[in-house]
Design brief:
The chain is α/β, with parallel strands linked by helices. About 35% of the residues lie in helices and about 15% in strands. The strands form 5 sheets. The protein has an 8-stranded parallel β-sheet. It has a two-stranded parallel sheet with strand order 4-6.
Length: about 375
């Protein structure tokens, strides 16, 4: 089955970091290229600090750029915008206003810095959602089970249990804000990383993919909700859809990790994650794979090898994972190359001087999604 024949109207997804390329890549060009791929759902990085000032007023010029992008995408076949922020503000000026993923220890004492942070977090989501009524789904964070995406204010690591507890609080507060600002919008759980309690996981050049970390994170989140100690016992007060990132890698005899073609083991691992929700009494809850892809290491031969990975992965999802609502391919283009000294080799397009050129595996993604038309080269 390919995406053209998928009965799920928003299955064909793509990740895109608009903010980093907003001055070099026209939104119309992006939308036209995504239409050729038959993209139906786009996951957009939309950090508080990019769009809001510290006083939570809107940076209107930046916001207008997002509005333009969303209009273009919808004019070219995109049905669903999924906006996500994994940076936030803290209620102390010393932490600055950019790219903050720091948090206080979980202290529920009235007036604590932690509770003031949660108040600010909730209000930030409310302001962001209010600004973008055209966004139909909001992902309340990213990989909060991963130590790289939430740290203590002194830069040290929380324990895994502490991360899950804080993430549960953030989901409750973020969902409450979305419900206030746009009751019809869908709330997606922060996509979980395949990282166990202590490893580095999949980030940049590290590709240690350990699914026990996702399973444990989903199980502990439901346990927190059932306890009633996090604001509600109803999972819908925390999320409408589960989300995780099914990067797939194995270890060789020397212990080195390598990406490999999805197989029955990969399928079973994803089934095991969803089974946790079933066992928690939440069977039927939607599931988004909000990041899925492989690293080609900047090598054309590796990119060519990944063609079969794309084909097999999407075939298995269609045939074996009926609970999946949407898959967001990670990601559209090498936007990271414009803000750092490394290339984003997960990207499906090279981006150079505002020009897109499709990689080899992008043509297989187009086929899987049922797209048509000549891709940019």
């Amino acid at each position: 089955m390919d995406g053209k024949n998928s009965p799920k109207p928003c299955f064909n997804g793509m990740c895109f970091v608009y903010y980093y390329t907003r001055d070099v890549l026209d939104s119309h060009i992006v939308a036209v290229e995504m239409e050729k791929l038959n993209i139906e759902s786009v996951r957009i990085w939309s950090h508080f600090c990019w769009i809001l000032n510290p006083d939570l007023t809107v940076k209107q010029k930046v916001a207008d750029g997002y509005h333009t992008l969303y209009r273009e995408l919808k004019a070219h076949g995109v049905r669903e915008i999924v906006a996500m922020s994994h940076y936030w503000f803290l209620p102390e000026e010393r932490f600055g206003t950019k790219d903050c993923a720091l948090c206080y220890n979980r202290d529920l004492t009235p007036g604590s810095r932690y509770l003031r942070f949660l108040d600010l977090f909730e209000e930030s989501w409310f302001r962001l959602v209010t600004e973008f009524p055209e966004v139909s789904a909001w992902e309340i964070g990213n990989e909060l089970n991963h130590k790289a995406f939430i740290k203590k204010v002194d830069g040290t690591d929380f324990s895994w249990e502490e991360r899950i507890d804080i993430a549960t609080d953030m989901m409750f507060r973020g969902t409450r804000a979305v419900r206030r600002a746009n009751p019809s919008a869908k709330v997606i759980m922060p996509g979980l990383a395949p990282v166990n309690r202590n490893s580095e996981g999949v980030i940049m050049e590290c590709i240690a993919a350990e699914y026990d970390g996702i399973i444990d994170s989903v199980r502990e989140t439901y346990s927190n909700i059932r306890s009633g100690r996090f604001g509600s016992k109803n999972p819908r007060d925390f999320f409408d859809a589960l989300a995780w990132h099914p990067y797939f890698a194995k270890q060789d005899a020397k212990g080195e990790w390598y990406f490999c073609e999805p197989d029955e083991e990969w399928t079973n691992l994803n089934r095991c994650i969803y089974q946790v929700a079933v066992e928690a009494g939440d069977e039927g809850v939607e599931c988004y794979l909000t990041e899925y892809g492989q690293n080609d290491w900047g090598n054309a031969e590796e990119d060519k090898k990944l063609i079969s990975y794309v084909k097999k992965g999407y075939s298995l999802i269609h045939e074996e994972l009926p609970f999946v609502t949407a898959v967001h391919a990670y990601r559209f283009c090498d936007s990271m190359g414009y803000v750092g000294d490394y290339l984003d080799n997960y990207a499906f397009y090279h981006l150079e001087n505002g020009h897109l050129s499709a990689k080899q595996r992008t043509y297989e993604l187009q086929r899987q999604y049922g797209g048509t038309g000549k891709l940019s080269v």
